[in-house]
Amino acid sequence: MSLVSEGVEVRGPLVAGVGEPSLATVGDYIALMKPRVMSLVVFTALVGLAVAPGSLHPVAAFTALLCIAVGAGAAGALNMWYDADVDALMTRTARRPVPMGRVRPGEALAFGLTLGSFAVVVLGLLVNWVASGLLAFTIFFYVVIYTIWLKRSTPQNIVIGGAAGAFPPMIGWAAVTGSLSLEPVLLFLIIFFWTPPHFWALALFRTEDYARARIPVLPVVSGDASTRRQIMRYILILVPLGVAPWAVGYAGALYGTTAIAAGAIMTMLGWQVLREIRPAERASRNLFAFSILYLFLLFAVLLIERGWGGLIARLAA
Description:
Mean pLDDT: 89
Radius of gyration: 20 Å
Low-confidence stretches: 1-19, 310-317
Helix content: over 70%
Number of domains: 2
Strand content: under 5%
């Protein structure tokens, strides 16, 4: 494996002096939980919960979403604890609470473990243990499999590790049904195959950051041309998967139209990245920005059609 940056040592989590006072504020602990990532996790979990057959008491539904949010926050805090050394080397992450010294590594570790334990136990006791087990596995997968093992060892880190971000719809579905079926698996696959082109589009214009931190993302290890080809391959798998809920009858015409139109734009932007029709950085930035909208549109329309629409119908009956 050949990395661009030389002479930078990547270790485990930073170690602060035992007796040093903490400078952390409430905002620092909120930042540890990666609130932007948490919001996407909660939203996709809400869709899984809303489209699942059956019913769940509003208090139980709120509890499930709260536990999923807290579990996502726990995973974020544990990720920041372990990655503090590489975060300090990257422009995008250097101002996070741990590398800035506002939160000590031990505090971030304790915070993440406490949040994770609380979320898993409460979800199991108050909702069901299937959803709780999936949440526990998701936290474990993101922290141990992705952060500790894959992230620093293989350019396929985001491909495999991205599964952690794809589990929330399955957890939401399991919270209602206590089981899984094809529909939440389809939602899982959409997010799973969305993650690599979304992340690699970002990595294309952040390559120097990752090289400096010696993180073997695909553009650093294989170069931009190989990354652009991989982005297009994943988009060509993603777009049919995005249409699949409508094709198999799980979603209506509004979802199908949205998925086809958004998939066409995603494909066009991927083609521009592949062929460098626009300046390379501009094309990858456009793809990165639209990929967020793409996923939001698919899940929002599914929520309107299958979630809120069904709820309104039940209340009106």
